[in-house]
Design goal:
flat, 1 helix
Length: 49
């Protein structure tokens, strides 16, 4: 995903725990957060741009 320039990655795999998904933004470490928080982060970034 980094090679094609995707600004966000939602990773569902072995690290997925319950309702927490692995979420990664370009230039930041991945974090485990729920889907509602992921949506909020993306919407806030969209408003800024």
């Amino acid at each position: 995903m980094n090679l094609i320039g995707a600004p966000y990655q939602i990773i569902i795999g072995k690290q997925t725990e319950g309702d927490l998904l692995e979420f990664k933004e370009i230039g930041k470490e991945s974090q485990k957060i729920n889907l509602e928080k992921i949506i909020k982060v993306i919407k806030e970034q969209k408003v800024k741009n």
